[in-house]
Specification:
By secondary structure, the chain is α/β, with parallel strands linked by helices. A hairpin with a 2-residue loop joins strand 6 and strand 7 (130-134). The protein binds adenosine-5'-diphosphate (ADP) and magnesium ion.
């Protein structure tokens, strides 16, 4: 039950004045459904305006407020795309046009009657030889004092909303903030000179304010740290089962290679954990191709040797199928069956699978999130392996853990190279094993950066590559969080590229992207994996785990749009066989310095952890991608710099709080519970005894 003190914050935005059904939609698209969401919708930046008496001192590109009188309205010809323009002049007779495009023009007709004077706020540009302000931010008859602040927040909007509207809604939300008890340790507050929670939110909307922003970011990091510690404490509290295998199944494995030192070490650590009654909570971190699957297989066989069940959870259907295939192959000489359960299993097949899991006749299952749905129960699930952990939230993991009669051991695996300084934020609740050694005999991947202008040469090289009997990937961008117009555009671009390549290579080329029907997608993947198709054109659905050793060329279009971690994972799809592999990063003609350096880094090194560390340095300045990276840990407020600076302090404080008050029942503990709700980590609260 959510504490009452938070009720005003969790009220729907529809309770605000001026928010009707029409404006709900754009607010929802921004994820702003409650009062607290609006309060936390912090400005992206602020504009600072200069108040001018006339245009004589005006500079182009500057944000100004200036009094102007209307002299003439110029409507565009019907059907023309030209803007509606109103010519204005200042006291000295200098002319400046105001311009409105599209629908905005309707309102403009009445805003500035000819002959009247108005105060206009906006960005001064030049159009031809005339000054111009496109879509002025404010127009008012009164002087600047009453109409517009000189410093004004700029919010992220979505279609249908305007800045003044958003500012109004946010203002109303801020007016409803209750006083909340303090959850930050008093010494920390004093040292950093941070305001209270309520004041911090109000100040953060008013202007650049480092102390306020830091405090809010800290709140978020503290909520995360606390929630992770609660998960960990819960894991320790629930009784698990000590599993010691007798080695009879593992002894029958016939791997075509010896284990690397790192693999053997990780397997040892896992076996030690599983032999304890306290449930294992371990992360296996290893670069693409480091050989995590074999490690997972050993862990699963320990469970089966002990007469229990194990499940492997994969983030996508394609990956689940591949894992199933790989494990089936490796398990053939062992004589252990492995089942596949995905959302697509229907009818009798599904019934059979569910029965087998309940009666225990299926010892091993691989699947997508379908394996932890309510209808699925297990006879004795003792180990859960989660591949590509970052795709799953902690909440989902807990749902799966709840399937065991006693708490199952959990092994999470990830190939996302996370800088050491951020590991705590992502995986603070887990023990970590690192596979820091690649299997021997891997050849370095020859990586080159090529401008898109040389596309013809790239296609010619691809043709030679395919003629020589090898396979290739061609990746088109489809940025994960892209939505709406951008997503449609990306799909269209991928389809257009596919059409072009198909014209050249015929049936040798297949296409895979996220909006294809699953059967179509699988069929294409299978054709490629079997070698029937030689060229796989894809958006980033192939990003994780796909394993086709004969594919030795990868072309990545618009490489500058990808995060480095993503590029690194994509590149890891090649270089898996004995042949030398090549990766071509196609880039746009115009690149920022940072973008150039980032691509150069990809050329220089193949060490995922180094790429992650240096990417962090390169992006220090807060490029767009920075928000994405910290967004992977689920942070909306804390940027990378703040995360690095404040996270250790937040974790220290969370640990202190838990040690002194594990049940969060002291006054500061109670306050901290509120924090978990504010940042939607209520699953943390659910874990509290009696909470
Ligand atoms: P990832 O860590 O990316 O999941 P995989 O488990 O898919 O890596 O392994 C990548 C490839 O390396 C597979 O083809 C696997 O059979 C092979 N491999 C794994 N361990 C070794 C090893 N010790 N020596 C040689 N090849 C190995
Ligand atoms: Mg893998």
């Amino acid at each position: 039950m959510r504490p009452e003190a938070l009720n005003p914050l969790f009220a729907e935005v529809a309770t605000l004045e001026g928010v009707g059904p029409k404006l709900m939609r754009p607010l929802e698209r921004l994820g702003l459904t409650r009062i607290k969401d609006l309060a936390y919708h912090l400005p992206e930046r602020f504009v600072t305006r200069r108040a001018l008496a006339d245009l004589s001192a005006a500079r182009e590109g500057e944000q100004v407020i200036v009094p102007l009188s209307a002299i003439e309205h110029r409507a565009p010809r019907p059907g023309s795309r030209a803007p509606y323009r109103v010519l204005m002049q200042d006291a000295a007779g200098t002319v400046c046009a105001l311009a409105w495009f599209g629908k905005a023009a309707h309102a403009a007709r009445k805003l500035v009657p000819v002959g009247e004077r108005r105060w206009v706020a906006g960005r001064l540009d030049r159009y031809g030889d005339m000054l111009q302000i496109v879509h002025p931010d404010h127009i008012a008859a009164e002087s600047t004092a009453g109409m517009a602040r000189l410093c004004e927040p700029v919010y992220r909007l979505s279609e249908g909303l305007t800045q003044p509207r958003m500012a109004d809604f946010v203002g109303q939300a801020l007016g409803r903030l209750p006083e909340l008890p303090e959850w930050i340790e008093p010494g920390q507050l004093a040292r950093a000179d941070w305001p209270s929670w309520r004041e911090a939110l109000q100040r953060a909307h008013r202007g650049e304010d480092k102390a306020a922003r830091d405090r809010l970011a800290y709140d978020e990091l503290l909520a995360n740290a606390l929630a992770l510690l609660l998960v960990r404490a819960e894991g320790r509290r629930r009784r698990g089962q000590a599993l010691v295998g007798d080695g009879r199944l593992r002894g029958r494995l016939q791997l075509p290679f010896g284990l690397t030192g790192a693999q053997a070490r990780a397997i040892g650590e896992i076996a030690d954990d599983m032999a304890q009654e306290a449930p294992m909570l371990r992360l296996l971190q290893g670069d693409v191709g480091a050989g995590k699957t074999v490690v997972a297989l050993h862990a699963m066989l320990i469970a089966v040797e002990a007469g229990r069940q194990a499940a492997l959870l994969a983030p996508t259907e394609i990956l689940a199928r591949q894992h199933h295939e790989t494990l089936r192959r490796l398990l053939a000489p062992v004589g252990v069956e492995v089942a596949l359960l995905t959302g697509r299993a229907k009818g009798r097949e599904r019934e059979g699978l569910l029965m087998g899991l309940i009666d225990g006749s299926i010892p091993l299952v691989v699947g997508t999130h379908a394996i932890f749905q309510d209808a699925v129960s297990y006879r004795d699930l003792a180990l859960v392996v989660i591949d590509e952990q970052h795709r799953f939230g902690v909440a989902q993991r807990l749902a799966l853990a709840a399937k065991g009669r006693r708490a199952p051991h959990t092994l999470a695996m990830t190939a996302t190279p996370i800088p050491r300084s951020l590991t705590l934020a992502h995986y603070g609740e887990m023990d970590v094993s690192r596979l820091d050694e690649l299997p021997p005999g891997r050849q370095p991947i020859d990586t080159r950066v090529v401008p898109i202008g040389r596309l013809d040469e790239v296609v010619a090289a691809l043709a030679r590559h395919l003629e020589s009997g090898q396979q290739a990937y061609w990746v088109c961008p489809m940025v994960r969080e892209a939505e709406g117009a951008q997503a449609a555009e990306d799909i269209a671009a991928a389809e257009a590229r596919f059409a072009m390549l198909k014209a050249r290579f015929g049936a040798a080329a297949v296409l895979v992207h996220g909006q294809l029907r699953p059967e179509v997608k699988d069929a294409a993947m299978e054709r490629f994996a079997s070698g029937a198709a030689r060229l796989l054109v894809a958006t980033t659905v192939i990003e994780v785990g796909v394993d086709v050793p004969a594919a030795t060329l990868m072309v990545i279009e618009q490489a500058e749009r990808f995060g480095l971690a993503q590029l690194h994972q994509l590149r890891g799809r090649v270089g898996r066989g004995a042949e030398k592999s090549v990766c071509l990063l196609l880039r746009g003609e115009e690149l920022s310095e940072t973008a150039k350096r980032r691509l150069a880094l990809m050329r220089e090194t193949q060490d995922g952890f180094r790429i992650a560390e240096e990417d962090l340095q390169l992006r220090g300045g807060g490029e767009l991608l920075g928000t994405r990276q910290s967004g992977e840990a689920g942070f909306r407020l804390a940027d990378l710099e703040q995360t690095q600076r404040l996270l250790p302090i937040a974790h220290g404080d969370a640990r202190l709080l838990m040690e002194r008050d594990g049940g969060l029942t002291s006054p500061r503990g109670e306050a901290a519970r509120l924090l978990l709700y504010l940042f939607e980590r209520d699953w943390g609260v659910q874990l509290l005894r009696g909470g």
